[in-house]
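WARN  no MSA supplied for this record, continuing single-sequence
INFO  ligand: pyridoxal-5'-phosphate
INFO  echoing inputs
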Amino acid sequence: MLRSQNNSNQINGLHHGGEPAAQFWCNPRIGDTQLAANPALISLEDVKTAEARWQRFAPLLGALFPEVRAAGGQIESALIPLRGPYPDLPEAGSAGRYWVKADHDLPVAGSIKARGGIYEMLLLAENLALEHGLLDGAQDYRVLAGQAAREVFGRYEVSVGSTGNLGLSIGIMASALGFRVTVHMSAEARQWKKDKLRAHGVNVVEHEGDYARAVAAGRRRAQDDPLSYFVDDERSMALFLGYSVAALRLQAQLAEAGVAIDDGHPLFVYLPCGVGGAPAGITAGLKLLFGTAVHCIFVEPRASACFLARLQHGDRPGISVYDVGLDNRTEADGLAVPVASELAYEQVAHLVSGVVTVEDEALYADLYRLRESDGLKIEPSAAAGFSGPRALLGTGPGRAYLQASGAAAVLSRANHIIWSTGGLFVPALEHDAFAERGHGIVAARQRAS
Ligand SMILES: *Cc1c(COP(=O)(O)O)cnc(C)c1O
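INFO  complex generated
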């Protein structure tokens, strides 16, 4: 890939001279009517069709995974009021209310990838089942856990490239259905994620390179084999639609909590972003439901700000973080991605309010704070959302966005949702080490101030 030395390729307007604060970049193309006229954009019907598929599969999911049986086979997370105190979150009350959308706790896959990865496996299983006459008018999808179905699924190999969590969701779901599974892991992937997959009988292939290369290797190997199915994180509409269903679920949870969402009661959603599929799917769904009342903000590690780079260079599909002088070095393994998904970009380039970039230190500090004050156990990537309100409410560009969008006048009636995206399966000792590191960072900051 070409590396440009040209200054115009730098990430614009962000200055990090030694200061770890989160930065906000406002997306100038929000509301762009030309982008909004794209016939490829998903519709609310598409989201509802995806939700109907989840419902058809709920009995089967309950049968395969005891942990979701009590919930009727629903894979969903709680919406939790944030207790705090969070000394460096802008004050609750004057800035509205804070919530955590607890996808770190999503059953079966342990991360937000449950929404996309599991959904794509359900779609695959349904298509094969119809093709092979396995359902034959049966309304109860539990037949797909039976011997005949397993025999059919076992002829196919599912493969995927992953920094860890997508591999977990695909590996756990596909192997439960009887598929053979290969996961191509990029260099960032944590050892325990590989171990867990191998314990599920998954073939784990380790790659030296970054995420884009692991995906390309998987795609190439699957190409010529008709019994091979490749889950393409950079191009998959199925993943995207799976994620989008979160919007319907959140809408119901907000209604149940008595939270009004309209232009007088804006909703801010802070979404950790890797390739952009998960945050974009959720954004597309939320914008279809709430329109201008919802403001979706992506959060990326500064070194892996690929979605930001793509938004800033609308004429350069495939632009990587290396092209803009960044090195993709972050300990947020779930977000360590050099190139944004073109599908995600195309779907939301006109819907994202802005992008926040964070330093790794902030992730550990927030991971520690959340564990201490709210008892929630998240992985470093999942802490990115906490820097969202800080950058939106506490920086010049963020406040300019609030003014321009009209949200500033009604800020005390706003709701802020920090989307926490992974953590359930992190081994206890590993989490202790994360928290200890975060504690050190928080303590050093207190001494300095
Ligand atoms: C994958 C992932 C994300 C972001 O999803 P993308 O579709 O890659 O943007 C966020 N947090 C965690 C923990 C993840 O694993």
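The chain has two domains: 11-109+240-448, 113-239.
INFO  checksum written, moving to next record
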